[in-house]
Amino acid sequence: MAKNILITGAAGFLGSHLSDRFIKEGFNVIGMDNFITGDHKNIEHLQDHPQFKFIEHDVTEHITIEGDLHYILHFASPASPIDYLKIPIQTLKVGSLGTHNLLGLAKAKKARLLIASTSEVYGDPLVHPQTEDYYGNVNTIGPRGVYDEAKRFQESITMAYHRFHGLETRIVRIFNTYGPRMRLNDGRVIPAFMGQALRGEDLTVFGDGSQTRSFCYVDDQVEGIYRLLFSDYAYPVNIGNPHEISISDFAEEIIKLTNTDQKVIYKDLPVDDPMQRQPDISLAKKLLGWEPKIDRKEGMAITFDYFKNLSEEELYKSEH
Ligand code: NAD
Ligand code: UDP
């Protein structure tokens, strides 16, 4: 019998790729989303699929699912700094109340729950690269605190249900992941730079561009999450690509990739923007036999193809 899996945030970037993967593996997928940062377009291709069912619902409200449920992936949450600055209360609620609802559902259905945590739990890290045993350096009252603290609470309540109720839980700490279906205007650096290059605008580097990130292609991320779900490890696991680059060097890379002659302009660094970020993935390697396979050159070329094929209307649509 095919197993049933609920994926929250299914109309978003990662949720839609996870839906594709689990369908391919033979699962019946129930996608849930309230479209606050997601897009119908990301799941259009699944609408008539016999293994896919969609429920439009805000996970901060009580959740009812008919019948058996074996697995839950909780991926609903705004994920881009400008999204969670714009909708801070919803961000706090989906990480806290939403997670509580999903834990309750998992307990009632005896389902295994995997939650999407983030490298942001490490804040502006004082340990580099970041290992899972680092407790982090988060400004609780800063503008990014709404996301970071919601995710930290999410991890705590998940571990509490695991310890107190014996619930089967998994925690993935996701580092910057990219690929097709990211929202062009979500403000994250890859769609931002690609949109600017395609519109013939200068690339906006925040601060002096010396801050670093390490970008993971979506298929690698999905593979890591898939393996973690079926492992027997309840503690957090970093999944990301350790190949680190400064944002100014990355801007130059995008200019080369897009074959444009855009310039780089410098803007203020957002408050609490982490200065360096690189996952230590030793644990994922040991535990899951996982490591990323797609390098930035290949992943960025696929992603650029996706953005290049968006309509003029989408390219010039402004949200902010
Ligand atoms: P996304 O914005 O593309 O997707 C999030 C989805 O969640 C959207 O479709 C949105 O409409 C939905 N959602 C938000 N609040 C909801 C609610 N209350 N009820 C129902 N649906 C709701 O973002 P993404 O990049 O796909 O991120 C997915 C998850 O992965 C998030 O939990 C995010 O924190 C985590 N994550 C992502 C990254 C990354 O680099 N992409 C890094 C770290 C963590
Ligand atoms: N950034 C930038 N220009 C942009 C958007 C982002 O220089 O137009 C920087 C941002 O300040 C951060 C890095 O790129 O240092 C990654 O930002 P993103 O929002 O993608 O993710 P974060 O890792 O900060 O959550």
Automatic annotation (TrEMBL):
Gene Ontology MF term list: NAD+ binding; UDP-glucuronate decarboxylase activity
GO biological process: D-xylose metabolic process; UDP-D-xylose biosynthetic process
UniProt pathway: Nucleotide-sugar biosynthesis; UDP-alpha-D-xylose biosynthesis; UDP-alpha-D-xylose from UDP-alpha-D-glucuronate: step 1/1
Lineage: Bacteria, Pseudomonadati, Bacteroidota, Flavobacteriia, Flavobacteriales
Enzyme Commission number(s) from the entry: 4.1.1.35
Main location: Golgi
Domain NAD(P)-binding: 6-301
Keyword annotations of the record: Decarboxylase, Glycoprotein, Golgi apparatus, Lyase, Membrane, NAD, Signal-anchor, Transmembrane, Transmembrane helix
Any one GO CC term of the record: cytoplasm
Organism of origin: Gelidibacter sediminis
Superkingdom of origin organism: Bacteria
Protein family per UniProt: Belongs to the NAD(P)-dependent epimerase/dehydratase family. UDP-glucuronic acid decarboxylase subfamily.
Names of required cofactors: NAD(+)
Membrane-protein topology: Single-pass type II membrane protein
Annotated signal peptide: none
EC category: lyase
Stated name of the protein: UDP-glucuronate decarboxylase
Gene3D superfamilies: NAD(P)-binding Rossmann-like Domain (3.40.50.720)
SUPFAM superfamilies: NAD(P)-binding Rossmann-fold domains
Localization per record: Golgi apparatus, Golgi stack membrane
